[in-house]
Write a structure and sequence with these properties.
- The structure is a single chain.
- The protein is mostly helical.
- About 70% of the residues lie in helices and about 0% in strands.
- It contains three helices and no strands.
- Helix 1 crosses helix 3 and helix 2 packs antiparallel against helix 3.
- It is globular.
- It starts with 7 loop residues before the first helix and ends with a helix.
């Protein structure tokens, strides 16, 4: 069995998503996800900024799925 880990940047992205959710509400989820999908293409998966964006994207995808 292999263990999967996430980076601190990925977790930071999740925290940023939570902060935005608390500040702006769930109505911004689709706009946030669209923005992240456009921006994430500029950063590689191993890049710290790319990891942060991927964490935040995962957060918003989960929010949309849970509220659908």
């Amino acid at each position: 069995m292999t263990t999967k880990t996430v980076t601190s940047e990925y977790l930071m992205g999740i925290r940023e998503g939570r902060e935005t959710l608390c500040r702006c509400g769930p109505g911004v989820a689709n706009a946030e996800l669209a923005n992240l999908n456009a921006t994430i293409r500029m950063f590689g998966a191993s890049n710290p900024v790319g990891q942060l964006l991927r964490g935040e994207r995962a957060f918003w995808r989960n929010q949309i799925a849970n509220n659908a």
